[in-house]
Amino acid sequence: MGISVLPGRPAPRAAASGSRLARPGHLHPVRGRRSPPRVPARAPGAPSRGLPGSGSRAFARTGRSGREPARAAGPKLGRVERILVSACLMGRRVRYDGAAKTSDDALLAAWRKEGRLIPFCPEVSGGLPVPRPAAEIEGGAGGAAVLDGAARVLTAAGADVTGAFLAGAHAALEAARASGVRLAILKEASPSCGSLVVHDGAFGGGRVPGDGVTTALLLRHGIAVFGEDRIAEAGLRLRELERAAAPGERRDPV
Ligand code: SF4
Description:
Elements: H1 57-62, E1 83-86, H2 106-113, E2 117-120, H3 122-125, E3 135-137, H4 143-147, E4 153-155, H5 162-178, E5 183-185, E6 197-199, E7 207-209, H6 213-220, E8 224-226, H7 231-245
Parallel strand pairs: 1-2, 1-5, 5-8
Antiparallel strand pairs: 3-4, 6-7
Bound molecules: iron/sulfur cluster.
Protein backbone atom coordinates (compact mmCIF):
# COMPACT_ATOMS: atom_id res chain seq x y z
CA MET A 1 0.00 0.00 0.00
CA GLY A 2 1.38 3.49 -0.89
CA ILE A 3 1.56 6.50 1.41
CA SER A 4 -0.81 9.28 0.49
CA VAL A 5 0.47 12.86 0.58
CA LEU A 6 -1.94 15.73 1.07
CA PRO A 7 -1.51 18.63 -1.33
CA GLY A 8 0.73 21.34 0.11
CA ARG A 9 2.14 19.10 2.81
CA PRO A 10 5.65 17.70 2.69
CA ALA A 11 6.06 14.01 2.06
CA PRO A 12 6.82 12.07 5.25
CA ARG A 13 10.50 11.56 5.93
CA ALA A 14 11.93 8.11 6.21
CA ALA A 15 11.07 6.74 9.61
CA ALA A 16 13.91 6.61 12.03
CA SER A 17 14.88 3.22 13.27
CA GLY A 18 12.68 2.28 16.17
CA SER A 19 9.80 4.46 15.04
CA ARG A 20 6.36 2.97 14.81
CA LEU A 21 6.53 2.64 11.02
CA ALA A 22 9.77 0.69 11.30
CA ARG A 23 8.36 -1.85 13.70
CA PRO A 24 8.34 -5.51 12.67
CA GLY A 25 5.48 -6.32 10.39
CA HIS A 26 5.00 -2.73 9.21
CA LEU A 27 5.71 -1.63 5.68
CA HIS A 28 8.92 0.34 5.52
CA PRO A 29 7.99 3.79 4.15
CA VAL A 30 11.02 4.05 1.87
CA ARG A 31 11.84 0.56 0.77
CA GLY A 32 8.22 -0.54 0.64
CA ARG A 33 8.87 -3.89 2.25
CA ARG A 34 8.51 -5.29 5.68
CA SER A 35 11.28 -4.55 8.15
CA PRO A 36 12.87 -7.61 9.74
CA PRO A 37 11.69 -8.65 13.20
CA ARG A 38 13.78 -7.41 16.05
CA VAL A 39 15.82 -9.81 18.10
CA PRO A 40 14.61 -9.46 21.69
CA ALA A 41 17.27 -8.28 24.09
CA ARG A 42 18.03 -10.36 27.13
CA ALA A 43 16.06 -9.11 30.10
CA PRO A 44 18.21 -7.41 32.74
CA GLY A 45 19.35 -9.97 35.28
CA ALA A 46 18.37 -12.91 33.11
CA PRO A 47 20.99 -15.66 33.16
CA SER A 48 23.38 -15.77 30.26
CA ARG A 49 24.23 -19.06 28.66
CA GLY A 50 27.12 -20.63 30.51
CA LEU A 51 29.05 -23.63 29.38
CA PRO A 52 26.67 -25.93 27.60
CA GLY A 53 25.40 -28.60 29.88
CA SER A 54 26.57 -26.84 32.99
CA GLY A 55 24.07 -27.56 35.67
CA SER A 56 21.63 -29.00 33.18
CA ARG A 57 19.51 -32.02 33.80
CA ALA A 58 20.75 -33.47 30.53
CA PHE A 59 24.31 -33.39 31.82
CA ALA A 60 23.40 -35.08 35.07
CA ARG A 61 21.65 -37.76 33.05
CA THR A 62 24.25 -38.41 30.39
CA GLY A 63 27.53 -37.05 31.70
CA ARG A 64 27.93 -35.22 28.41
CA SER A 65 28.45 -31.53 28.14
CA GLY A 66 26.34 -31.08 25.03
CA ARG A 67 27.49 -28.70 22.36
CA GLU A 68 30.23 -26.41 23.54
CA PRO A 69 31.39 -24.55 20.45
CA ALA A 70 35.08 -24.02 19.95
CA ARG A 71 35.52 -20.28 20.31
CA ALA A 72 38.83 -18.91 19.23
CA ALA A 73 38.77 -16.17 21.85
CA GLY A 74 42.05 -14.32 22.11
CA PRO A 75 44.73 -15.22 19.61
CA LYS A 76 43.71 -16.45 16.18
CA LEU A 77 44.78 -20.03 15.87
CA GLY A 78 45.34 -22.23 12.87
CA ARG A 79 43.52 -25.01 14.65
CA VAL A 80 41.89 -24.84 18.06
CA GLU A 81 42.68 -28.04 19.90
CA ARG A 82 39.84 -29.22 22.05
CA ILE A 83 40.54 -31.01 25.32
CA LEU A 84 38.43 -33.69 26.97
CA VAL A 85 38.26 -33.08 30.74
CA SER A 86 36.88 -35.10 33.62
CA ALA A 87 33.62 -33.38 34.49
CA CYS A 88 34.32 -33.58 38.23
CA LEU A 89 37.46 -31.45 37.72
CA MET A 90 35.22 -28.74 36.30
CA GLY A 91 32.99 -28.64 39.32
CA ARG A 92 30.33 -31.10 38.21
CA ARG A 93 29.00 -33.14 41.12
CA VAL A 94 29.23 -36.47 39.37
CA ARG A 95 31.55 -38.51 41.57
CA TYR A 96 30.41 -41.71 43.23
CA ASP A 97 29.83 -39.80 46.49
CA GLY A 98 27.91 -36.98 44.81
CA ALA A 99 30.78 -34.52 45.14
CA ALA A 100 33.03 -32.72 42.67
CA LYS A 101 36.82 -32.41 42.58
CA THR A 102 37.01 -28.90 41.21
CA SER A 103 40.38 -27.88 39.87
CA ASP A 104 41.55 -24.31 40.43
CA ASP A 105 44.36 -24.62 37.90
CA ALA A 106 44.87 -21.30 36.09
CA LEU A 107 45.74 -22.93 32.77
CA LEU A 108 42.58 -25.01 32.87
CA ALA A 109 40.59 -21.85 33.61
CA ALA A 110 42.19 -20.11 30.62
CA TRP A 111 41.35 -23.03 28.34
CA ARG A 112 37.82 -23.01 29.62
CA LYS A 113 37.51 -19.33 28.67
CA GLU A 114 38.83 -20.14 25.23
CA GLY A 115 36.08 -22.72 24.79
CA ARG A 116 38.51 -25.59 24.42
CA LEU A 117 37.20 -27.88 27.13
CA ILE A 118 34.77 -30.73 26.74
CA PRO A 119 33.64 -31.83 30.22
CA PHE A 120 32.72 -35.48 30.32
CA CYS A 121 31.99 -38.11 32.98
CA PRO A 122 32.39 -41.63 31.61
CA GLU A 123 30.70 -43.34 34.55
CA VAL A 124 27.55 -41.23 34.41
CA SER A 125 27.55 -41.51 30.64
CA GLY A 126 27.87 -45.26 31.02
CA GLY A 127 24.60 -45.31 32.93
CA LEU A 128 25.68 -45.19 36.56
CA PRO A 129 23.78 -42.94 38.98
CA VAL A 130 25.00 -40.20 41.30
CA PRO A 131 25.67 -41.14 44.03
CA ARG A 132 26.74 -44.72 43.38
CA PRO A 133 28.78 -47.36 45.20
CA ALA A 134 32.53 -46.93 44.84
CA ALA A 135 34.06 -49.36 42.38
CA GLU A 136 37.59 -50.59 41.71
CA ILE A 137 39.28 -52.73 39.09
CA GLU A 138 39.79 -56.16 40.58
CA GLY A 139 43.36 -56.78 41.64
CA GLY A 140 44.26 -53.25 40.52
CA ALA A 141 44.83 -54.81 37.12
CA GLY A 142 44.36 -51.56 35.17
CA GLY A 143 42.10 -50.40 32.37
CA ALA A 144 43.79 -52.35 29.59
CA ALA A 145 42.99 -55.63 31.36
CA VAL A 146 39.34 -54.58 31.59
CA LEU A 147 39.24 -53.70 27.88
CA ASP A 148 40.71 -57.11 27.09
CA GLY A 149 38.20 -58.98 29.27
CA ALA A 150 40.91 -60.06 31.70
CA ALA A 151 39.60 -58.11 34.71
CA ARG A 152 36.29 -56.76 35.99
CA VAL A 153 35.23 -53.59 37.76
CA LEU A 154 33.48 -54.43 41.02
CA THR A 155 31.86 -52.60 43.90
CA ALA A 156 32.86 -53.42 47.47
CA ALA A 157 29.72 -55.59 47.68
CA GLY A 158 30.88 -57.55 44.65
CA ALA A 159 28.45 -56.12 42.07
CA ASP A 160 29.93 -56.28 38.56
CA VAL A 161 29.77 -52.86 36.92
CA THR A 162 32.23 -53.64 34.13
CA GLY A 163 29.61 -53.09 31.42
CA ALA A 164 28.88 -49.53 32.55
CA PHE A 165 32.58 -48.69 32.72
CA LEU A 166 33.15 -50.02 29.21
CA ALA A 167 30.11 -48.17 27.87
CA GLY A 168 31.33 -44.95 29.47
CA ALA A 169 34.83 -45.40 28.04
CA HIS A 170 33.46 -45.87 24.52
CA ALA A 171 31.16 -42.87 24.92
CA ALA A 172 34.16 -40.78 25.98
CA LEU A 173 36.10 -41.93 22.92
CA GLU A 174 33.14 -41.09 20.71
CA ALA A 175 32.87 -37.59 22.23
CA ALA A 176 36.59 -37.06 21.79
CA ARG A 177 36.56 -38.16 18.18
CA ALA A 178 33.54 -36.01 17.37
CA SER A 179 35.59 -32.93 18.30
CA GLY A 180 38.94 -34.08 16.96
CA VAL A 181 40.36 -34.29 20.49
CA ARG A 182 43.99 -35.36 20.83
CA LEU A 183 44.47 -34.45 24.46
CA ALA A 184 42.62 -35.28 27.67
CA ILE A 185 42.95 -34.18 31.28
CA LEU A 186 41.39 -36.75 33.55
CA LYS A 187 41.06 -37.24 37.30
CA GLU A 188 43.93 -39.25 38.70
CA ALA A 189 43.35 -42.60 40.48
CA SER A 190 39.79 -43.09 39.26
CA PRO A 191 38.96 -46.56 37.89
CA SER A 192 37.77 -44.76 34.75
CA CYS A 193 39.95 -41.67 34.53
CA GLY A 194 43.21 -42.52 36.32
CA SER A 195 46.33 -42.21 34.20
CA LEU A 196 49.25 -43.05 36.52
CA VAL A 197 47.68 -44.89 39.44
CA VAL A 198 44.45 -46.72 40.30
CA HIS A 199 43.11 -48.29 43.47
CA ASP A 200 44.28 -51.81 44.16
CA GLY A 201 40.86 -53.43 44.25
CA ALA A 202 40.89 -54.08 48.01
CA PHE A 203 38.80 -50.99 48.93
CA GLY A 204 41.31 -50.06 51.62
CA GLY A 205 42.67 -46.91 49.95
CA GLY A 206 45.72 -48.66 48.48
CA ARG A 207 46.96 -47.55 45.06
CA VAL A 208 49.03 -49.27 42.42
CA PRO A 209 50.55 -48.04 39.15
CA GLY A 210 48.05 -48.29 36.31
CA ASP A 211 45.32 -46.47 34.46
CA GLY A 212 41.54 -46.45 34.33
CA VAL A 213 39.28 -47.98 31.70
CA THR A 214 38.54 -44.75 29.82
CA THR A 215 42.18 -43.69 29.90
CA ALA A 216 43.30 -47.04 28.52
CA LEU A 217 40.84 -46.78 25.64
CA LEU A 218 41.80 -43.19 24.80
CA LEU A 219 45.48 -44.12 24.83
CA ARG A 220 44.82 -47.00 22.45
CA HIS A 221 43.36 -44.50 20.02
CA GLY A 222 46.24 -42.08 20.18
CA ILE A 223 44.78 -39.57 22.62
CA ALA A 224 47.29 -38.34 25.21
CA VAL A 225 46.00 -38.36 28.79
CA PHE A 226 47.27 -36.26 31.69
CA GLY A 227 46.15 -36.21 35.32
CA GLU A 228 45.13 -33.00 37.07
CA ASP A 229 48.65 -32.70 38.53
CA ARG A 230 50.20 -32.64 35.06
CA ILE A 231 48.32 -29.82 33.43
CA ALA A 232 51.50 -27.83 32.72
CA GLU A 233 52.81 -30.86 30.85
CA ALA A 234 49.55 -31.01 28.94
CA GLY A 235 50.06 -27.35 28.02
CA LEU A 236 53.42 -28.15 26.43
CA ARG A 237 51.81 -30.93 24.41
CA LEU A 238 49.07 -28.57 23.34
CA ARG A 239 51.63 -26.10 21.99
CA GLU A 240 53.38 -28.85 20.07
CA LEU A 241 50.11 -29.98 18.52
CA GLU A 242 49.10 -26.48 17.49
CA ARG A 243 52.50 -25.60 16.09
CA ALA A 244 52.50 -28.78 14.06
CA ALA A 245 49.01 -28.00 12.78
CA ALA A 246 49.92 -24.48 11.69
CA PRO A 247 53.53 -24.46 10.45
CA GLY A 248 54.91 -20.96 10.00
CA GLU A 249 52.07 -19.50 12.00
CA ARG A 250 53.65 -19.46 15.40
CA ARG A 251 50.98 -18.29 17.75
CA ASP A 252 51.06 -19.62 21.26
CA PRO A 253 47.69 -20.06 22.95
CA VAL A 254 49.19 -20.35 26.41
S1 SF4 B 1 36.86 -39.29 37.83
FE1 SF4 B 1 35.95 -39.57 35.81
S2 SF4 B 1 34.35 -41.11 36.09
FE2 SF4 B 1 34.93 -40.35 38.12
S3 SF4 B 1 33.45 -38.71 38.54
FE3 SF4 B 1 35.24 -37.75 37.63
S4 SF4 B 1 34.76 -37.68 35.46
FE4 SF4 B 1 33.34 -39.13 36.35
